[in-house]
Amino acid sequence: MAKVNMTVNGSPASGDVEGRTLLASFLRDQLHLTGTHVGCDTSQCGACVVHVNGEAVKSCTMLAAEADGAEVTTVEGMANADGSLNVIQQAFQDHHGLQCGFCTPGMVMSAAALLKENPKPTEAEVRTYLEGNICRCTGYHNIVKAIMAASGQDVGAIAAE
Amino acid sequence: MYNFEFVQPGSVADAASAMAGEDAQALGGGQTLLPTMKQRLASPATLVSLTGIADMKGVSAADGVLTIGGATTHATVASEAAGSFPGLAGLASHIGDPAVRNRGTIGGSLANNDPAACYPAAALGTGATIVTNTREIAADDYFQGMFSTALDEGEIITSVRLPIPQASNYQKFVQPASRFALVGVFVAKYADGVRVAVTGASEEGVHRWTAAEEALSANFSASAIEGLSVAADGMINDLHGTGAYRAHLVGVMTKRAVAAAS
After folding, report:
1. A40: nearest CA in chain B?
2. What chain B residue is nearest to A107 in terms of C-alpha separation?
3. Positive or negative CA dihedral for A38, A43, A49, A52?
4. Number of A:B CB contacts under 8 A?
5. Contact: B97, A62; criterion CB under 8 Å
6. In chain A, what residues touch B49 (CB-CB under 8 Å)?
7. pLDDT 10s per residue in chain B (262 long)?
8. Among A6, A25, A48, A131, which would you mutate to test the B interface (most chain B Cβ atoms within 10 Å of its Cβ)?
9. Best of B76, B93, B100, B179 to disrupt the A interface by mutation (most A CBs within 10 Å)?
10. A87-150 topology per CATH
């Protein structure tokens, strides 16, 4: 076991981990931040996406030890300071961007990473960026609408309207 | 996955000492190795993370050569090589998905030499030099069949030097579930000739298509390879595509790469 220290959603967090402890396991099992979901555990589905030092990563395919000293943001850290949903989360609700909701934490984190590097993406860019996030309910249209809306763009022309 | 000791050295020298231990394995971004370990197809005693070594990160262009640290992520290559070597930046920007590109490294990809990986095509297609902690290896000598390379036990790829072509492009026919190449072709045009490297297709892993290189060196246009064909013998034959289909795709993707080269 080795000690890891990181900043998670702005607060210091530490714990003893094995070499093989995944970042997703550390967040869920030790910090009880169960918003980060493990869907496939093979880095295909993207439900486990979190930000490490500002970059989207699949937390099921990163060791907790590799995040030692890092700034980690999970979906629990996305809400506004007053606890209300942030613009991306609110857009998912407004545009029915989820059905079962299992993929949603990863979708929100990927969407946030996309909008940080590309604040006004085209519909095609949104769809391409979500290649590593799988949703089995929605068919993606409303997720794409939500992200377009969160970027402040008109969503009227999107196919699922 | 089975447990292991995790170490994260801060220098190449410390990493090399750690790699001398029994059953030690280098860890780049872990985007292939960790899934492999989860399936218990690998069970090293020690994982030596290379991502804490600052000297092994970064992209720089000088004297017509792009040098990329072995622990540089695909996302970094995609952004930092965009101006100096757009063909390579384009390749890096289509590996896996955005989250995978934020972790996966060029050194990891080349050390693994997956027969459907993208970077081996760029390294072979540019005649790159693979620089390790002990020596320099020409790409033509480095790739030795699928998942097999010239690397010795414990040897670490510290950087890769790629001669910047006059024009280049990589075209990948994506296997949609894995986003690896069903067939990928890297074409690079230099003053002294054209190199063409093919990944995803052959049971021997990445390889050069010399007939196309000769034709394109004489006439760098898609029509120059119109009459050429690739034999289906030795091509990967699986549920995603037959050997004949892959052989056909080699020609198609080469033409597209030539047409798109910039």
Report:
1. B35
2. B99
3. positive
4. 72
5. no
6. 65-66
7. 999 999 999 999 999 999 999 999 999 999 999 999 999 999 999 999 999 999 999 999 999 999 999 999 999 999 999 999 999 999 999 999 999 999 999 999 999 999 999 999 999 999 999 999 999 999 999 999 999 999 999 999 999 999 999 999 999 999 988 889 999 999 999 999 999 999 999 999 999 999 999 999 999 999 999 999 999 999 999 999 999 999 999 999 999 999 999 9
8. A131
9. B100
10. DNA polymerase; domain 1 (1.10.150)
Fold of A2-77: Ubiquitin-like (UB roll) (3.10.20)
B169 interfacial to chain A (CB closer than 8 Å): no
Distance CA B94, CA B87 (A): 11
A56 in B contact zone (CB under 8 Å): yes
Query: What 3-state DSSP class applies to A63?
Result: strand
Alpha-carbon distance values, A24 to A107, B6, B8, B103, B239 (Å): 16, 17, 20, 15, 32
Q: A48 and A37 in contact (C-beta within 8 Å)?
A: yes
Nearest CB neighbour to B6, from listed A19, A43, A58: A19
Interface confidence, given as ipTM, is: 0.95
One-letter amino acid for residue B78 of the chain? A
* Residue ranges, CATH 1.10.150.120, chain A: 87-150
B100–A43 C-beta distance less than 8 A:
yes
Spell out the residues 6+ positions from residue B59 whose beta carbon is closer than 8 angstroms to its own. B66, B67, B68, B69, B72, B76, B77, B80, B81
Residue B120: which H helix or E strand, with range? helix B119-126
